[in-house]
Amino acid sequence: MLINKKYKVGIIRVASFEDPKMLNLHGELIEKYMPFIETESLCIEDQPEGVHDLVSKAVAVPKILETAKKFKSPDAIIVSCADDPGVPELMEIMDIPIIGAGSSAAAMAKRYGGSTGIIGITDYVSEAFLKVFGDKVINLGKPDGINCTIDLMKKGGRESVIKKAGELKKAGASSISLTCTGMSTIGVAEEIEKAVGLPVVDPVLAEAVCAGFEILRNNKVVNSEEK
Amino acid sequence: MLINKKYKVGIIRVASFEDPKMLNLHGELIEKYMPFIETESLCIEDQPEGVHDLVSKAVAVPKILETAKKFKSPDAIIVSCADDPGVPELMEIMDIPIIGAGSSAAAMAKRYGGSTGIIGITDYVSEAFLKVFGDKVINLGKPDGINCTIDLMKKGGRESVIKKAGELKKAGASSISLTCTGMSTIGVAEEIEKAVGLPVVDPVLAEAVCAGFEILRNNKVVNSEEK
After folding, report:
1. Which of B9, B43, B48, B111 would bridge B13 by S-S if both were Cys, CB 3.0 to 4.6 A apart?
2. Full-prediction pTM beyond 0.80?
3. Closest residue of B to A186, CA-based?
4. Rounded distance, CA B218 to CA A161, Å?
């Protein structure tokens, strides 16, 4: 029975963490969500503020490609960033499923129909969301005072995110997509959903289920031994 | 820890089965895929050939709404049919997540970008796929000799499906979406993938992970007790 086997998934964190608890936080969530996944988390170097604009994204991509090589025979790799940095490049050079938080969140949000309102730490709409939603993305810019994932953890960070969600609802969004995995770190999805009454897509949950889909798709659970 | 709790998911089969093995087949796959889900399967009455065109779909919808009421306090309901019959109606009248195979498969296929080629048992493109893919669905009609799910299990059924997948690849598809859950019953996704080399979306796997997403989204795993 499938559950007895654990599949190895490498998690690339696109901010440099010294604290192993922070480094492993997304991986631990993913293991809880998908019990057949075992994670190893690695982070890129010299980028304590992570990926928060096109420049920091460009700088991160080669580091992400290097980091991906360090995992020992992973069954899949997740780039745990909603901007999907390095995801297209890794797909080109590696033979295993590569999952980005951005394309995963966009796909899950698409199920709710209509337009999705994005809340992230960038002013632009990520390519992953543009590909899935086209002009059906509502972007009202970053929440006040939020410029990087660290700001989300500061006083007033959560309130600012919830305020933005309310504005997106007024602007016609039928779902809210959190386009920064730092939103998963602070676990704010549920609060937003309660406050505004729209389905909220948490990017780490989205990447977890999409990784689950890829692993199950590639590992013949249909033909596995019965319990 | 989440895995210790099982969430109850009602599975509605849109063909009338007398054989409990056939009735429970999708539910058993879903339980394997998502170990925190426990399923109960019920089928609609007097429709041995299931949903295979707009008329049989229209006839099925009121039966699906009746069937949904029979589950005892489910955490979610899956309508295990790629045409999503009754899904919008159930969303209106019920307060729990309602998951359709069609919208789930479309969302998972969207992650692969480009156009998806559909293989089902209807000549039309389902609304769920139109909503997600717009004009990016490649539909070359039903596989030869396939008019209902029963035909898939007959001699030559699998070969006919694989042949159609090859034609869809030639027509420019970057993924294959199986738009009939009977394709999951016969477990043909892996064979197609090997034969044509495109990612293939199995609708029962797709509905399983999307149900997993909805359950995890609504049940605060983030705040659950640690192992």
Report:
1. B43
2. yes
3. B222
4. 19
